[in-house]
Amino acid sequence: MANGTSALGLDLSGFYSQKFDKVGTTVFASYNLGSPYDPADIGFTAIPEFDRFTLNPKLFWYAGERTEMMLGLNAVLEDRLGGNIDYVKGETVDNPYFEANETERISTQFGIKHGFGDRSQLEFKNSFSFFDRNIQIPDYTFSGYQRSSFSELNYSPSSDVMEWVFGMNLWTEYFDHAQENDISALDYSYQIFGVFAQNMWTMDETLSLETGLRADFHSDHGAMVLPRLSVLYEPNSALTFRLGGGLGYKTPTVFTEEAERLQFRSVLPINAANVDLERSIGGNFDINYKWVPLPGMTMSINTLFFYTKISDPLMLELNEGGSYEFQQPGGYIDTRGAEINLKIKYGDFKLFTGYTHANVIQHVGGTTTDFPLVAKHRLNNVLMFEKEENLWVGLEAYYYSPQELGSGGTGQSYWILGLMSEKKLGEKFSVFLNFENFLDARQTRFGPIYTGNIGNPQFLDIYAPVDGFVINGGFKVRL
Questions:
Q1: Exposed, middle or buried by CB within 10 Å (0-12, 13-18, 19+), for 314?
Q2: Does the N terminus or the C terminus of the chain have fewer Cβ atoms within 10 A?
Q3: Per-residue pLDDT tens digits for 127-162
Q4: This model's pTM is above 0.85
């Protein structure tokens, strides 16, 4: 596939697969090029200059009718440079502001599974990840490397009415911050060993129950027990009800969106003894109904209600010494919401429309505030025309309501409209053309996105697109 954009971007990708008796392979490779792009003409890149290479080969071995093994490698290399657009283009600029990112991510993939008869299977899977990163701004450089791994062994017996999965797994995480001052280095490491069991019980034709229980043993924070439950009731082929919920947690790390905005400058390391896990509880209930109102027409509607609560959220605060420190002031963040999705199919037309309401509230220090950068109301609409798997034309429209900003202000609401199309020319060739955000919704049209001057900008919260209207098109070839 080849794809070019009006913002002078280029995407090239290819996929190959083949099976030779007991051995098979797949290979995915891609190259992505971005050119510096400033549609608002404010002197800063909305799209940075970047080069990205991706390679993902996999090898499959079918040792027997019941034994299969997979070995793979995934590599992503990227260089990214944004900031003052004249500087990014290679021009001479006095005291330019820029942000340069160099990342190298390599991960291994391994899996083997063996079946015992038709009712049970033993599986082992493993992955190692190597992630190196370097961030540079005019007078500061952040660099480090991360090593992580995941291993799991599970056994899954089943019967006509019941399916089980028993297993254990191990996560390891290690980060080394490459800087001379060991006191302020953001180094950390931890290991998590877990055991789990889950069950799917088909009680009868209308009712099924899924339960799960896992116990994790964290090297820094001790043991956690995490149950979950899901009940599915299907009184007939047109109507289903589902009720579910469970517990979860997140390990505190320095890699948060707030620290990323600072390029981790003046961010203090986390002392595992002074913070706890971010613990969560959540539940949801949904109803799905399908019907045929007219000959040739099908409709379905899904209504989902959800609630989540995160206790002891980790927050990045500026302390008296001028450094940023991760703290847990207590309190919680809860989300109450509902989502409604409607699908209609009539002839060659398909309509997908949905509404999402998310009320995310932060309760900290006796005060209650809206969580920033969350649209309480969202609309998602896609109208598709498909003619005999030969021609596709789609119109999409997305609405975002005003969002609370970290500064205490409120952003503007906006719509994003797009038009997508694809046409097959023969069995092995197709062309496509897309008009993305053709109303040119951009935050730079609503107001400034930074304060200060172009050499030392202080960027504001970004809640809307900054790249605006972009056309992209290309072709696909099947060899």
A1: buried
A2: C
A3: 999 999 999 999 999 999 999 999 999 999 999 899
A4: yes
